């Protein structure tokens, strides 16, 4: 677009400094548009990171399920970071403590015998994965920690052992299971003692009998294996 401006002297005689009619041309240029690559929105990036973390948590739980003998839930509400770190320090290497959402743990145990754990998936839980047959010894550190720190509200929310769900009021059964040495001693005494001792053993609760026979079979296998 062009515009022309004209100027004239008001005197009949031309003034020495008068300006002759002149024209001034102005050229207006359209602004140049610079196209920049569109950046992905921050919410999209956050969603991708969150999804990745969830997948990592599910995979971590699945790894813990391998060679796991017991899983127990602990009410996590009210725990401080310091308390959680201290608790982890009291646990043996055979016990792992993980904080994970119920939905993620539920996804990891879906289709497995650990699905029996679902009744305790309420509120916030920390999950105890026990990788040893010595169940009482594995649960004892948390009981002592709970008593020492006066964490009465942070009790066990439930557990699964050998495919069965144990409610909080049934944990005494888990915490008083016989150790391997006790099973061996009891079986040996039953086999060496009078027949009435063996009969008493056979009349014991089914679970205790299974543990006793299992330990005896394992012992025989170990003895028959060449060095």
Automatic annotation (TrEMBL):
Belongs to the universal ribosomal protein uL10 family. The gene is LOC120282648. It comes from Dioscorea cayennensis subsp. rotundata (White Guinea yam). The keyword Nucleus does not apply. Keywords: Chloroplast, Plastid, Ribonucleoprotein, Ribosomal protein, RNA-binding, rRNA-binding, Transit peptide. GO terms for cellular component: chloroplast; ribonucleoprotein complex; ribosome. Its main location: plastid. It is found in: Plastid, Chloroplast. It holds the Pfam family Ribosomal_L10. This is Large ribosomal subunit protein uL10c. One of its GO terms (molecular function) is rRNA binding.
């Amino acid at each position: 677009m062009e515009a022309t401006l004209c100027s004239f002297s008001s005197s009949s005689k031309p003034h020495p400094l008068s300006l002759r009619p002149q024209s001034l041309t102005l050229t207006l240029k359209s602004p140049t548009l610079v196209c920049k690559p569109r950046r992905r929105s921050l919410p999209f990036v956050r969603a991708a990171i969150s999804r990745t973390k969830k997948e990592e948590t599910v995979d971590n739980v699945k790894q813990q399920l391998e060679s796991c003998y017991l899983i127990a839930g602990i009410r996590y509400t009210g725990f401080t970071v310091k308390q959680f770190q201290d608790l982890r320090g009291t646990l043996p290497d055979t016990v792992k403590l993980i904080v994970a959402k119920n939905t993620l743990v539920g996804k990891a145990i879906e289709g497995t015998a650990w699905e029996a754990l679902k009744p305790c998936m309420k509120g916030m839980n920390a999950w105890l994965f026990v990788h040893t047959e010595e169940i009482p010894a594995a649960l004892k550190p948390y009981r002592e920690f709970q008593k020492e720190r006066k964490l009465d509200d942070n009790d066990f929310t439930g557990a699964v052992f050998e495919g069965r769900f144990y409610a909080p009021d049934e944990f005494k059964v888990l915490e008083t299971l016989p150790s391997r040495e006790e099973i061996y001693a009891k079986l040996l005494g039953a086999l060496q003692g009078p027949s009435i001792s063996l009969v008493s053993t056979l009349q014991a609760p089914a679970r205790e009998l299974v543990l006793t026979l299992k330990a005896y079979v394992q012992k025989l296998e170990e003895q028959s294996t060449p060095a």
